[in-house]
Every structure is written in structure tokens, then in C-alpha cells.
Design goal:
Order of helices and strands: EHEHEHEHEH
Shape: globular
Structural class: alpha/beta
Largest sheet: 5 strands, parallel
Strand content: 15-25%
Distance between the termini: 43 Å
Helix content: 25-40%
Number of helices: 5
Radius of gyration: 15 Å
């Protein structure tokens, strides 16, 4: 008999509403709980309230950017265990190194595919990725977060 995994909670921080809607739809199809914020300050408040299982945050989010938020979270014992994934629209070695030095668990380049997004969640939370067929939707391979 297959055991059901606990419903994991994703916090997604990006000011682009169309990206948020696409990711929300995908996360919910994959049976994740989903919450979004549009800026780093609201994200910090939300993290304290909801204690997400994983955080995706745009490097250039308004108010507190992804780098600043990552440093604040990784410096606190209560939050350092939460996987923190920075989203970037630009391939930039400096930003990737900076993210690693500041404690981010990885950088996910925009645009990303549904399968890339789900694979990052699975790897970060030590889960099996959902079957390809379980998240059928009408978007293309490099479909989410196209800049």
C-alpha cells in the first residue's frame, strides 16, 4: 500500500503576478500547499506565521531582496533548516557565488520548466518527484517565469 506524503507548504516570493499564478497552479496540482508574497518584508512576516517547508524567492524582490532575506533566515536557528531557493532571471556567476556564500540552497534560473520546479522541491525536501503524468497542464517545457 502506498503511503501518502505529508502535504508540504511552499512559500513563493515574486512580484510578478503571472509567474505566481502559474507556479500556484502547478504546486496545487502536485498536492502542495502554496502561499505567495510580493516582497521580502511580507515574506519574513509570513515565514514567522506559517513556517513553510521550502521558500522560493526572487533575487530582486522589492523591499528586502532575496539575498537579504536569505541572510536573515539562515542566521536564525529556527529557520536555517528551511530550504531557500533563489530565483534569477539572469545567468550571472557573481550572483550564483553570492547566493552560495550567503547560505541559499540553490539558484533556479528563470524561465524554468514545471519538471525543473518540481524536481527542485523533491530534491530539497528529500522526496520522490511526482510522476510526469500527475501534473498535467497546458504549459510548455520552459513555461514558468519567462522574463
Amino acid at each position: 500500500m502506498e503511503t501518502l506524503r505529508p502535504r508540504r507548504h511552499i512559500l513563493f516570493v515574486d512580484s510578478n503576478k503571472s509567474i505566481v499564478q502559474s507556479v500556484k497552479k502547478l504546486a496545487e496540482l502536485a498536492a502542495y500547499s502554496f502561499h505567495s508574497e510580493g516582497n521580502g518584508f511580507d515574506a519574513l512576516c509570513s515565514i514567522a506565521r506559517t513556517m513553510p517547508d521550502i521558500i522560493f524567492m526572487d533575487m530582486h524582490a522589492p523591499q528586502l531582496d532575496g539575498f537579504q532575506t536569505c541572510v536573515l533566515l539562515k542566521s536564525r536557528d529556527a529557520y536555517r533548516h528551511i530550504p531557500f531557493i533563489l530565483l534569477s532571471a539572469e545567468e550571472n556567476l557573481f550572483n550564483s557565488v553570492r547566493a552560495e556564500v550567503l547560505g541559499a540552497d540553490r539558484v533556479l534560473q528563470k524561465p524554468f520548466s514545471s519538471q525543473e520546479f518540481l524536481a527542485v522541491i523533491a530534491a530539497s525536501l528529500d522526496e520522490e518527484p511526482p510522476a510526469k503524468d500527475s501534473c498535467q497542464h497546458e504549459q510548455s517545457e520552459k513555461d514558468i517565469a519567462a522574463a
